[in-house]
Amino acid sequence: MLVTWLFFSLCTQASAQEHHTIKGIVVDANTSEPIAGANIIGESLYAVSADNGEFIIREVPVGTFKFEITHIGYAHNQFTIQILDGDIEGLVIRLKESVTSLDGVELLGKTEKRKAQELSTIAVGIDEEFLKSNRENSLMQTLKKIPGVSTITIGSGQSKPVIRGLGFNRVSVVQNGIKHEAQQWGNDHGLEIDQYGIENIQIIKGPASLVYGSDAIAGVVDIQPAKLPLPNSFDGEINLLGETNNDLIGVSTGIQSRKEKWFYRGRLTYRDYDDYKVPTDKINYENYIFELHENNLRNTAGEEINASFSIGFVSDNFKSETFFSNVNAKNGFFANAHGLEVRSSSIDYDSSNRDVDLPYHRVNHFKITNNTSIYLDRHTLDVDLGYQNNQRDENSEPVPHGHMPKPPNSRERIFTKNTYSLNIKDTYNTNEEHDIVLGVNAELQNNNIGGWGFLIPAYERYSAGIFIYDHFKIHENLHLQGGLRYDAGVMDTKPHFDWFQTPIDNPDGSTSNVYVQRSHDKSLEFGNLSGSLGLSYIHQNTTYKINLGKSFRMPLANELASDGVNYHMYRYERGNIDLDPEQSYQLDIDIDHSTSKFNIGISPFVNFFENFIYLNPTPNYYETLQIYEYTQSKVFRFGGEARAGINVTPMLRLDASAEYVYSRQTSGPKKGFTIPFSPPLSGLFSASYQFKDVAFMQSPQVTADFRVTAAQNDIVPPEEVTDGYQALNLSANTKIQLFGKGKPAQLRIKLNNVFNTEYYDHTSFYRLIDVPEPGRNLSISMTVPF
Hints:
By secondary structure, this protein is mainly beta. The protein is globular and about 100 Å long. The two termini are about 50 Å apart.
């Protein structure tokens, strides 16, 4: 079918060569920055400028044509052009800001927002300005201000996404079209992505398996490719960062350049930080009192070195970019959390706040991706290729446990994961009413293990899916979207035996010393049908959305075949080879009303899991450690987010948001309880004031964020109740003109946890061992363009 479509498209394109093409770019007259979303309108001819300001008008006959260029916030412009016997290239259109430029800034997003309004999925767009203004120690901590988004934090620089109370492999993180694959199943495994250089993120809240496949059962964090550099350009930036809580020093430098058709980008990032401080001098865990030296959470220091480079080519009907990246990090684990080492260790953990002692992990994530787009008249063919290598070494003191003799080294667990990915998508614009998308995804994972501490087996996982999707414009303001997808997958687990012998009682009363088998050679097959149907309606300033979706998730290797001690959690974990794929049904509604003065919105959802997978504590023990087993139950969930904002004056803006999730297991051993890591009711109140220029400071702005979180009394044993809290964060940012008339530098100052409040985040990894969130932290960062 695909070949037939391509043949038809090529034939159509060949016939179109009887006409001519106009190519140009729309830029700001003052800054020469590209303008996206500008309308170029002529008689029976039309185009919209892309993110990089470029536009193409095809099938232009011979003759003279008059065009009008419009964009909210800019004065209209016109030009006349005569087509004789050739194409027109290199046309530059410069728009001047209109006198209502301030209102234009607010309304500018509506041109971009229109596409999102017409989709029934509940999505939030995050731009580069938001990322820079709210940057925290990790990408997901930066996104915590988005209603419905939270994190599972692991120390200073690591975190993983949680959307509406669901995390781990229930949220897909996609970068440049390829799903990020690492060891994200672990509580203490962060996200290996450099947050610098990211320009745009789309967060989809709700089932998204239709396009993204397994693991997108709760939502997607889609890190989209950066916009193309301007032709014949070179620019870059230096990001500097310092923080007081953990004495962090960070620097990131990025460059990009383009000739006419070839372009490249590059970035280097380095971060180094101490043990971070908490607003307490002692921690009580399992009746052990841990004294903290100068409030430092010992052995939570770390270092991160990242590098990336891409090269690409763009022409009229073709665009391709190949992206290389390597993220390397070494992070310490809070020593008291890992098997209570501090009680017997000879390591002086308090001798230095900056060194990384045992236990620690070292992670290296290498990634190659290629994104190619081919434009063939009514078809757009997108092909994404990806290869990822994730190397993770977890090191701890070689201490004998149970029947295990003293290990020969500190390499407790080693994971080496290779992932190969392929996505093909054809978008066919049949007419003005229909956009049909046909796509296939395929992925191969190979995960090998090493070290003396077994937890999950080596495995290979194969998965493939095919989907079809249609966006039907019923009329200009009423849009229907729907699609179906089928996925098939195979999980092959490999056998594994202990490296030491364990005495086993025989039926005849004798005892044998055997190498215990921890995993078996198993091949499991999975298949599932998913889909969605939604409607969006735009009525003046109000957008209404409703979407019903079914998603699924294949069980992971740890859920199916784990059988070992997880010293990070101080428990024994055992998988269940008979687990079924998770299946989820969810209804989403979104109502948003926005004007130039204020906005208000609400996004409720109802969700039902047929077979939710979770780790359940049992009354059994293994060598003094409680055994946890993976099991399944039916789960009913509902909740949502509410948001409101108002421009009190042209300078003062107030915003408020709230989020809530209710979860209840309706079957299984924990019937009547919630599910693990359920976030409590939370609200965020923000006030932002924009000053006039002061001395060398351009457009200085101050922001206060006050978060109010209720107590989480709705828990599932062995979780404990988490008290509510209030925390105040302050920030200020301004532009500073350093180099003549070039782009200004941006200076940001943030003060988190202003009152050094001792509080606990219910979705934090260290909350499980009664470790509070970090104390007061002053951070200063600057972005200097060149």
